[in-house]
Amino acid sequence: MKKRLFLLILAVCLIGCVSAQQRFELISKKDTTKVCKNPHKGLYHHYYDNGDGGYLGTTAAIDALPGCDIIFIRLAWRYFEPTENNYNWSYIDNLVSTYQPKGYKFAFAFTCKETGEQYATPQWVKAADAKGTNVDCWGTTVWEPDYGDPIFLAKLQKFHTAVAARYNSAPWLAFVQIASYGTWGEGHNYPASEATASWTVLKQHVDMYTSLYTNPKTKICWVDDSYEKQQWMAAGDQAALKSYCDSKGIFWSDHSVMVKYYLDTYPSTYSIQSPVLFTSTWQTKPTQLEMQHYHMVKNEKNWSVPNGTTKGASIEINAVKLAHCTWFGFHGDAKTWVADNPIFSKQISNLVGYWYKLNYVDIPQGVSAGSNQTITLNIENIGVAPAYNQYQTLFKLTDGTASNTITIDNSNNKAWMPGIFNQNYQITIPLSFANGTYDLYFKMYDNIDTKRNIDIALNDAIKDADGFFKIGTITIGNAVGISESAYNNQQVTLYPNPTDNEQNI
Predict the structure, then answer these.
(1) Which end of the chain has fewer CB atoms < 10 Å from its terminal CB, N or C?
(2) Which of 322, 351, 380 is the C-terminal boundary of a domain?
(3) Same domain, 334 and 441
(4) Residues 6 or more apart from 141 whose CB is under 8 A from it?
């Protein structure tokens, strides 16, 4: 009897603490046309590609790229170590000094074989008796190294050790591509020998990168042909290669999107030859797609100007969706790309990776100062992938005079897969706030890496100078009876746990 009475009293008390919720609709405030230039996703621009003469680009042209996140440097090893132990870092450092202050990050691909250069691997490596073969690449004699040769691997390891010592801790380094195997670093030896390496050799390359580039903020990727072109392997080796790379945290990239051969051969997967690389990993690792050289796609009549409307855009969008792409490279001149595709370039930049909008928010009313309250956000990730970095959630209460910001360090955003769901946050109403009505503002912030706000698809007319969006109001009634010191010692906690999200995909 006493137990029943206690539970009844407890229930009455809990009911008395529950505040009425008011729903604030935000659908009418959405804006999916603006570019949400956010960290850890978007476009990447090939600054150096196929040698030090392309694609380059002025700062104005690159700044005009919608949502450009990364400057991609793909250059042969020989540019950085023209003679043994004498390094030339200017190809990296000059770009960093120009673009890093603007908020760009960088990615590296140091290649050992190119089609237009005889020695992508420095000639002094061959002179040191590293094994290799002269092959013909579209009329150019190219030295193709034996990728498993001990001398070649020792010299390569020493070079990457120097790179890692200089740049591994750089906050602007986004990812490093395993580019030491194959033509253009893409995991194949076309054109030329068409030679393939053993799983043992490929593993040596993987181990070299993963042992040196150890900064947890720096990711490592590998191109799909390193997996796809190895069907000749002994039974189980190809699966072992993928499993090993996945276990090492390596993410996958496809550099053949919109290439005519792959468009013709893999039409049902929108020119992606190995969807399994992406479909099995995208929930926990980023993915990358690189379009064939843009001018070639146009010349082959696979892209219409403007915006790929007649042909091209729908294929690219479906490829992005299939691969749950995080970074997209158009692989061409930045100025031309934007001039040809003023609308599509914005659309694809928003679509890749995460892209958030709010549909409505439920806010308690008539609350007591000092009380804990739950705010429910109906969030839609209209992008194709989750964020792979943890961001903060911040709420700001203000009546124009008094103001208080509540920070929740883990917004739970890494669990926000594409779709619609509710996310609950528990906040403590400031004890010092007087009765009245306060505007409630919301924003997300990357406090761990880039120190940038996370923009969302809401109209900037409701965004303040600090990046907070006004999402509703909250009324405060009488204060609860706790001391100021007790309030100051309270901890703001995230509620609920990630598995408690209401998913409505």
Answers:
(1) N
(2) 351
(3) no
(4) 118, 134, 135
Q: Is residue 410 part of a domain?
A: yes
In a domain? residue 234: yes
**Structural domain tally of the chain?**
2
- The residue range of the domain holding 307 is 42-351
| Cα-only R_g, the chain | 27
Q: Which burial class, exposed, middle or buried, applies to 399 when counting CB atoms under 10 A from its CB (0-12, 13-18, 19+)?
A: middle
302 backbone dihedrals φ, ψ, rounded to 5°: -105, 5
Q: Please report where in the chains the tokens 């855009």 appear, as a residue.
A: 313
Q: Where are the beta strands (DSSP E) in 192-312?
A: 219-223, 251-257, 288-291
User: 274-301: buried (b, 16+ CB within 10 Å) or exposed (e) per residue?
Assistant: bbebbeebbeebbbbbbbbbbebbbeee
The angle formed by the CA atoms of residues 73, 325 and 290, to the nearest 5 degrees, is 40
Tokens of 171: 């906050």
Judge whether 6 lies within some domain. Answer: no
3-class DSSP state for residue 1? coil
Tell which residue, 21, 168, 32, has the closest CA to residue 92: 168
Same-domain pairing of 314 and 296? yes
Residues 253 and 368 in one domain: no
Phi, psi of 322 (to 5 degrees): -65, -40
Sole residue written with tokens 């005079």: 401
For residues 428 and 492, the answer to whether their CB atoms sit within 8 Å is yes
* Helix/strand/coil percentages in the chain, nearest 5: 30, 30, 40
Same domain membership, residue 332 and residue 261 = yes
Cα–Cα nearest to 261, from 288, 231, 227, 225: 225
Two structure tokens written together for 458: 């809401």
Amino acid (one-letter) located at 1: M
Residue 438 shares a structural domain with residue 395: yes
- Separation between Cα atoms, residue 88 and residue 385, nearest integer Å: 37
Residue 225 shares a structural domain with residue 91: yes
Same domain, 220 and 300: yes
**Mean pLDDT, consecutive 10-residue segments, the chain of 505 residues?**
41 48 96 97 96 95 97 98 98 98 97 95 98 94 96 98 97 97 92 86 96 95 86 74 94 96 96 95 97 96 97 97 97 97 98 98 96 97 98 96 94 98 96 94 97 98 97 80 31 33 33
**Contacts of residue 449, Cβ cutoff 8 Å, sequence gap at least 6:** 39, 40, 171, 217, 389
8 A C-beta contact, residue 490 and residue 428: yes
End position of a domain, from candidates 329, 351, 373: 351
